[in-house]
Amino acid sequence: MRRSLAGVALAVTSMVALSFLIPLAALVMSLVKAQSVTAAEQRAAALAPVLTLTTDPSALRESTASLDATEHLVVHLPDDRVLGSSHAPAELLQRAQQGRESISQQIPSGWICLQPVVLPGDQVAVIENFVPEKELTRGVKASWAVMSLLAVGLIGGSVLVADRLGAKVVRSSKRLAQASRALGQGNLDTRVDPMGPKELRDAGVAFNAMAHRMTELLAVERELVADLSHRLRTPLTALQLASERMAGSPESARVEAAVRELETELQAIITAARTPLAVGPMGHGMRGDETSTADRPTGAGPSGPRCEAADVIRRRTAFWSVLAEQQNRPCSLELTEEPAPVSLSDDDIAAVVDALIGNVFRHTPPGTPFGVRVLRSAQAVELVVEDAGPGIPEPDRALSRGSSTGSSGLGLDIARRAAAVTGGSMDIARGPNGGAHITVVFALAPPLLSERRPRASRRRTGWLHRR
Q1: How sure is the predictor about 412, in pLDDT bands with cuts at 50, 70 and 90?
Q2: What does CATH list as the number for 195-288?
Q3: Is the whole-model pTM more than 0.90?
């Protein structure tokens, strides 16, 4: 491309230079010739008054010398005397004498000017001024050389500028091409520094946006696989408890082996999905149907996902209470009587409840009690899950996805991200009994037009199962 741009600049500048240089060279030559001829005619005209006063050769020679034209200024007197060396052809001289005609024209050796002068007695003398060929072109070659040097400098400068501009364009294009190849080979950290012309800068910005979006989508897909795999642990826990109750039967060993194999496969899927990608600094994971919490406004609009959180939490707690009964776990549930709408789907709230209660079953021994509370405030719905187990020794680390000790770390992250989508938050503390005390705050969904002002708060409290 650089060679092509330089060639185009060379061709265009050369044509422009020639289109000006050729007429200008002809004009310079014409002006030099015209100045020489005009000067010759003026010298001949200046000698004419002297000739009308005297024909004395010595006086005429002195006048010729004063005009600085001794060599080429010639006087033809009526008595055929010639003062100087004549170059005029005989026919032109005869024409000037007999026809009394002023003649100025080109001859083979230069330019001749003949000026007839009428003397007393009706006699005619002729003043001749000869301009040699070299006088007609004096300084023309030097002017042409200067113009040629200027043209060459102009052409060279334009080619150099075109090459520099082409180098900048080529450099930008090469970097964009290299980044595209690197991205195609799997280097998702590849970015370009937009440079060059506006079009290439726009292309670089678009490439960076595309690469950023690609890393986000890949991270979303991997996190979605991990989240879905984690949610499969809920029915898996139920199967595991069922197999424990079948202990001693002929089928128990086979069922337990199948459950362990399924648990191993799920853990392998989660581990593979959590393998770090070469993603950019903004490649955060999220669910496939969600936007980034940094970009999503606090609370979805009335047309977005919406559910009654208390109802979903009640149903999922009832499911886990059956499993709690099998392990002799006391389970309490406390629900608000007020409406608790949040801007999440039923499945999202169910995933949060399953993740938190599932952690209780996985990380506390059988018989450990736990409780679930749903509280409603003026602007939020609080889900509290607490147990009497060993607690979470490093809460800050537990909130970092994939870094929890002894687990995949997905459960708490699922709850935290669901709360963040609505504009809420999550807190991990130690409960009164020494166990984990997890509070997930969901911002209330915007009220619908058909909703009426909620009634006074009433709570329903009790142990679902106590053994």
Answers
A1: confident
A2: 1.10.287.130
A3: no
